[in-house]
């Protein structure tokens, strides 16, 4: 009996040590961004689930923000540190729906972030009413706001797997993540071969032709109401709105699929709500240069820097990148877009 008891004590001690090692390693790397420390083991962070990761950061770290940047995965590589005069947090998440934005704004304000400015990156694919919303932020918020959740994750072997990958990438300087963050929440897409990029672009064009630009496309009947709700519920907050760039082949596909009237209607609704929009989704020096993109619609971080500069009315190298469009200039702008797309289609 004494031998059996001693064996159990040793086993329990080993288990406790293993749990402490796993928990300590997960805390040190912090792949879910629930804490606020930086070290050589977490310099590179995988984008695991940005809805949870970014919400944990807003809820529990000591960082205080007075501005948000909202958008899809395209906008994740717009550097929040490029905006002067505000403490910006990039709350962009993949495959976002227009219905999600207000929930992220409310969550940030609930956790003490008084918002003076919201920079809103809009994507044409979110105007498709037949594209069903698949992510519901309230489900993530319920998980994040469980006071024990971030400590439970420290004991998770799933978290340990992410921690190991992040630590390995940080120490060995490997490019194993499609989109990675540093500890200052600056994101970038990995560089890939031209052959791999060509395959990604072909896949994107097939998907957009069959889904986002398909004959079944219907313009989102409540899109403008969602935009207006953001303005109405945040009367003391300034908005800067931009339309994200995509590559020339994807723009040309939009025209070929006869979606230009919907694109026109979309821009008009944005301007009616916000008074103006920076339109990067045109034929310009950036969108015709595929080297500036990871695939057909995700741009590299250097393009994100150009967007941030243009939104602050700074000069950018490509003079035709990001035109400010208002009600007064709308008709001329749309005619220029139409003519450029017609020229590319010939």
TrEMBL record:
This is Uncharacterized protein. It comes from Alkalihalophilus pseudofirmus (strain ATCC BAA-2126 / JCM 17055 / OF4) (Bacillus pseudofirmus).
């Amino acid at each position: 009996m004494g031998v059996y008891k001693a064996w159990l004590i040793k086993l329990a001690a080993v288990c406790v040590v293993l749990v402490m090692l796993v928990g300590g390693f997960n805390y040190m790397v912090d792949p879910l961004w629930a804490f606020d420390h930086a070290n050589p083991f977490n310099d590179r962070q995988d984008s695991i689930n940005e809805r949870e990761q970014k919400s944990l950061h807003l809820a529990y770290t000591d960082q205080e923000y007075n501005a948000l940047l909202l958008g899809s995965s395209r906008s994740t590589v717009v550097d929040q540190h490029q905006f002067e005069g505000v403490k910006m947090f990039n709350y962009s998440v993949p495959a976002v729906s227009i219905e999600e934005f207000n929930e992220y704004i409310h969550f940030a304000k609930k956790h003490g972030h008084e918002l003076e400015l919201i920079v809103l990156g809009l994507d044409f694919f979110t105007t498709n009413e037949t594209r069903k919303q698949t992510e519901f932020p309230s489900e993530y918020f319920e998980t994040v706001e469980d006071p024990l959740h971030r400590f439970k994750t420290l004991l998770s072997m799933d978290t340990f797997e992410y921690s190991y990958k992040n630590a390995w990438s940080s120490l060995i300087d490997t490019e194993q993540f499609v989109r990675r963050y540093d500890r200052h929440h600056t994101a970038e897409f990995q560089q890939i071969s031209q052959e791999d990029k060509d395959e990604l672009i072909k896949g994107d064009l097939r998907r957009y032709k069959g889904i986002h630009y398909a004959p079944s496309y219907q313009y989102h009947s409540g899109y403008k109401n969602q935009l207006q709700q953001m303005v109405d519920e945040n009367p003391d907050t300034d908005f800067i709105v931009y339309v994200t760039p995509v590559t020339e082949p994807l723009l040309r596909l939009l025209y070929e699929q006869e979606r230009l009237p919907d694109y026109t209607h979309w821009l008009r609704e944005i301007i009616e709500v916000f008074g103006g929009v920076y339109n990067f989704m045109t034929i310009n020096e950036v969108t015709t240069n595929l080297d500036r993109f990871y695939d057909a619609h995700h741009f590299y971080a250097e393009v994100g820097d150009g967007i941030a500069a243009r939104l602050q009315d700074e000069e950018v190298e490509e003079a035709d990148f990001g035109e400010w469009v208002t009600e007064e200039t709308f008709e001329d702008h749309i005619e220029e877009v139409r003519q450029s797309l017609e020229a590319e289609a010939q």
